[in-house]
Model the fold of this input.
Amino acid sequence: MGFITRGWLDKQRGEDLMQLPAQQAQTMRVLGSASVLAIALCTSPSLALAQESLPQLPQKLEVVRTSLAKYMDLAQSETDFYMAMGCIYYGDIEGGIPHKFDPTKPGQMTQINYTNLIDDTLNPEKPEGLIYEQTANGDYRLSAAVYMLQAGPDTKRPKLFGQEFEGPVVADKSTPLQRINLTVYDLHVWFWRENPDGLFTRTNPDLPCRFDSYEIRAQPPPFPVNDPRISP
Done:
């Protein structure tokens, strides 16, 4: 499995990614070869916390956010084996929110930790994915955590923080970074970036998935979903 660094990523994506304007604004088993984001140093956690106004959270979520503060330094995500994937676009699936590419909005990249994925458990302090915003100067700013659980025909819909997971979805594509093949339930938590559509909403209109060959388009699973929320 190759290890993707920020220098390699920037070289592949080109200098155009560095010109984005400033804006404030999956636990499972691997099905196929792995993928997902390894970037590089940005600001230190203490500096980032001082510079940013973080979303207001319930106390139990504030505790989780504090435990994940180390990942505001992307070098730490690399140390903990998070690797570059790209971003997952959910606009093609039923209930997904389509969007068009908007060059005025910052880019989004997702990192996944396959060690966390393959153990088939959910741990609030060990999210399977991390979402970063690419800032105008080319740094990456931590925005959200993504919790994932491998999905199969008999998998019960998981729940965390009192929230039911969305999905399942299939993410299957070879990007310029890596080949991925995932079938997962997912829960997004926007710990570090305001989401006008809600703290647990899958997508953030202020941080869309960019259409630049690095996006992975989510698809429905190839099996019926036994979901009591869906009427027969």
Notes: Helices lie at 6-13, 45-51, 59-67, 74-79, 114-117. Strands lie at 82-89, 107-113, 129-134, 140-150, 159-160, 163-164, 166-174, 179-189, 215-217.
